[in-house]
Every structure is written in C-alpha cells, then in structure tokens.
Write a sequence for this structure.
C-alpha cells in the first residue's frame, strides 16, 4: 500500500477514535484540534468517510456522528461474541464426554477460524490455537462447513488448487466433491490425518436463523486414542450438540438444510 494511502487510513482510524460516549457528535474544528491536523485535511477525510457511510452528519449542526457502516461492523463483531457465548455449554459438554480437544470454527471468508476451544487434559493431544485460520477443504470442521455452503461457493473453492497439508489431505477435486456429498448425507464430517498427520477429527455443522451454515463444532484427538470406534460413538452426540447451538442462534429446523444452488 502506498505511503499516502497508509497515512490516510491511519488518520481515518484516528478520527473514529475521537468519537466517545461523552462526545458522540464532533465538528471539523474539534477533530482537527484533537489530532493536531489542518482543518482542510480533516474536512476532506470527513467528507470521504461520510460518503462511504462510515460517518453521518447532523443536518442542523453540521457535526459528524458514527454512521450506519460502523453499526454493521459492530453487528458482525457481536455475532462472533454471540456464537461463542451460546456455543460454550455444548463445547464444554463435548469436552467432558470425549476428554479430547474441542473447538468451534466459524466461516471467515473462504477460510475457517478457530473462535473458541478447550484443550484436552491428556498429555498427548491435538493442539489448536484460538484465532488460527485454516482452509475449508482440509480437516473435519472445514469440510463440515463447506459441505453445507451454497453450490456456487463450493465450485469456487474446488476450482482453485487444493493445498496439501499432510499426505492425507484431499487435493483432487472429484474426491472432495464426493466427500462433501457423503457429509451432507450423514450430517457430520471426519478427518483422518488431513490437517494433522496423526489425528482423527469429527465435526458437525452449525446454522444461523436464516438456515445458512456459519460454523462447525469439532473434536479431535490422536488416532491412537480417538479411533474410528470413538467417532461412531460420538457422531450422534456431536450432531445433537451442533443442532443445539443452531437452535440457540435462531435456526428453526429439526434437520439439516440442503445448500442452495446459488450464493
């Protein structure tokens, strides 16, 4: 990014920081004084931010307020907090039952991000870092999300080169498409060393009030302990807990929605 664009972005963020609960409306001169910037510079930035919806303007006083776009950003941030909050009881129950590392992965663009996790108390365990991002094609949580995404989104993902993360990562388009069909049919996804070579993962999708998949509930452990028999044992429970989270988010269905043909 050119230096002048970086400077403008830095100044725009500084302008946003000027707005506080005790000063929700500010004029050009007030902001310029707080930031020690020329009035003309601040005026141009405010006009641009107003045109983009980041700021609104009181027509009577000509002073500026935070705009509708800030509210939209706030709602996106709060939705993450809501998901983490409503998912916590189910996450704790899955951890109690399995004694393995459990996590919530949420859709983040064309990737998944670990929103919440509880580590296994076992000495040998799968290690996940909160906030880390992973691709959707590799691992149980990613596939659980991808399988229930709109078909146009899936086509875009499988059309790109599929990164090999371990020898077991699915990198062939036809194989991944068939795997996603299997996941939609059974309601859960598994991973045999696709992301971590010696781990086995199990995940189920989470849906919001609109019926869109937004996240996945996941459990993973070393394959010497968390075996296929454990997956078969816990698959019904993880689907039940994922649906419990979905209902808390406002999802009305009792069964899994089939992804639409368009995004």
């Amino acid at each position: 990014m050119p230096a002048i664009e970086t400077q403008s972005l830095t100044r725009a963020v500084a302008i946003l920081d000027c707005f506080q609960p005790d000063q929700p409306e500010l004029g050009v001169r007030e902001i310029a004084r707080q930031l020690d910037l020329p009035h003309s510079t601040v005026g141009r930035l405010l006009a641009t931010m107003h045109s983009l919806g980041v700021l609104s303007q009181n027509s009577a006083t000509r002073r500026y307020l935070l705009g509708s776009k800030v509210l939209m950003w706030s709602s996106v941030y709060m939705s993450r907090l809501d998901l983490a909050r409503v998912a916590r009881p189910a996450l704790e129950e899955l951890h109690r039952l399995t004694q393995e590392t459990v996590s919530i992965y949420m859709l983040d663009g064309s990737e998944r991000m670990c929103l919440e996790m509880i580590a296994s108390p076992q000495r040998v365990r799968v290690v996940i870092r909160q906030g880390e991002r992973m691709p959707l094609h590799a691992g149980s949580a990613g596939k659980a999300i991808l399988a229930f995404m709109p078909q146009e989104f899936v086509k875009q993902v499988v059309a790109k080169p599929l990164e090999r993360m371990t020898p077991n990562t699915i990198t062939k388009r036809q194989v991944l498409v068939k795997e996603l069909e299997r996941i939609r049919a059974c309601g859960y996804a598994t991973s045999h060393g696709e992301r971590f070579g010696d781990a086995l993962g199990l995940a189920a999708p989470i849906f919001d009030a609109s019926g869109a998949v937004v996240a996945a509930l996941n459990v993973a452990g070393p394959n010497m302990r968390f075996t296929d028999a454990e997956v078969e044992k816990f698959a019904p429970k993880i689907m039940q807990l994922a649906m419990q989270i979905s209902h808390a988010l406002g999802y009305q269905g009792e069964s899994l929605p089939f992804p639409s043909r368009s995004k």
Remarks:
- The mean pLDDT is 91.
- The chain is about 45% helix and 20% strand.
- Strands lie at 55-57, 64-66, 101-108, 111-118, 133-135, 189-192, 199-207, 213-222.
- The chain has two domains: 3-66, 76-248.
